[in-house]
Amino acid sequence: MSAVRTPLASQRRNAELGLGVVAILVTVGGYLLLALSSAPALPSDFWFFLAFISSLFFVAHIGVRFLAPNAEPTLLPLVTMLNGLGFVMISRLDLVLPESQRTARTQAVWIAVGIGVCCLVLGLVRNIDALRRYRSIFLALGVGALLLPLLPGLGYEANNARLWIHLGPLNFQPGEAAKVLLVIFFAAYLGDNRELLRAGTRRIGRMFLPAPRHLGPL
Asked: What string of DSSP letters covers 25-56?
């Protein structure tokens, strides 16, 4: 990520900080309502949860502020809110599950790992345009990840959907990694072929479509 600051960099980061605080308040409010629905008193882990969710956001925010100061200011707050509300939903499900089957703590650990990976990527990928050179590799890896659950002995069906794979002690959905890989491919492809895709050469009714060789990869 480029760390060269533009005149709007500080304004964007301050907007991100303000939106992030709103996302934290929404998440904490949802957690509080969930806790009060099962007990009239403030939950014992409320302040820990507030500190945990706040610290994760501020770590990510500081990483973006110094490593990618020109980044879009709405992405991190949106991710914070989605992760927070997802955690609240998992916590709600945990209320009716035995202790051995509860997953909220595991989810919290993976959120923290995700923040760490985010900061690591920001530090390692100093120029995001360099990823364009490997767009075909990202496409192949993304499609391969989508197909992994179909492999005998590796993928398995859960809840009537064959989305999971078993790899040693880990069980996960490779489709989640495929989303990231394919987003990188599409971003690179659309960026490199913006003008060709915009200029329609084939008319179908009232619409003009790009040439098939340019539209095909999409």
From this structure: HHHHHHHHHHHHHH-SSPPTTHHHHHHHHHHH
Six token digits for residue 146: 């989508």
Spatial separation of the C-alpha atoms in residues 166 and 179, rounded to whole Å: 19
pLDDT along the chain (218 residues), means of 10: 70 95 94 82 80 93 93 94 91 82 85 93 86 91 93 85 84 89 90 75 71 71
* Integer Rg of the chain from CA: 21
Instruction: Of 9, 119, 109, give the one whose Cα is nearest residue 60.
Output: 119
Residues paired with 209 in a beta bridge: 202
No. of helices (H) and no. of strands (E), the chain: 8, 5
